[in-house]
Amino acid sequence: QLQLxxxxxxxxxxGSSLRxxxxxxxxxxxxxxxxWFRQPPGSERKLISTISGTGEDQYYASSVKGRFxxxxxxxxxxxxxxxxxxxxxxTGVYYCxxxxxxxxxxxxxxxxxxxx
Length: 116
What we know:
- The protein is an all-beta fold.
- It has strands at residues 3-7, 10-13, 18-25, 33-39, 46-51, 58-60, 68-73, 78-83, 92-100, 103-106, 110-115.
- The protein is 0% helix and 55% strand.
- Strands 2, 4, 5, 6, 9, 10 and 11 form a 7-stranded mixed β-sheet that branches.
């Protein structure tokens, strides 16, 4: 079982950068594929990026491609999301997600607010 805790959210101006972290407690972190989801106010939660267990394979939604970068440090049980050139439409609660086979886990979310 994994427990996931996000950190690094906040209020920033458009054009700024933020780095979100997700720290996992539990075993076999490297076996899990990881992802970041975003839930804007009043909207559904949507996938924005994924990363494989080794970190070699990554996916980005078109809305963040070229601005966001996902990475992981398996030695530290951490997942990261570097967010550059933030836009007001990036505002929302960001969730980290881990999945392996039939097991999946969610973090509690971190609020990111981008002002124009």
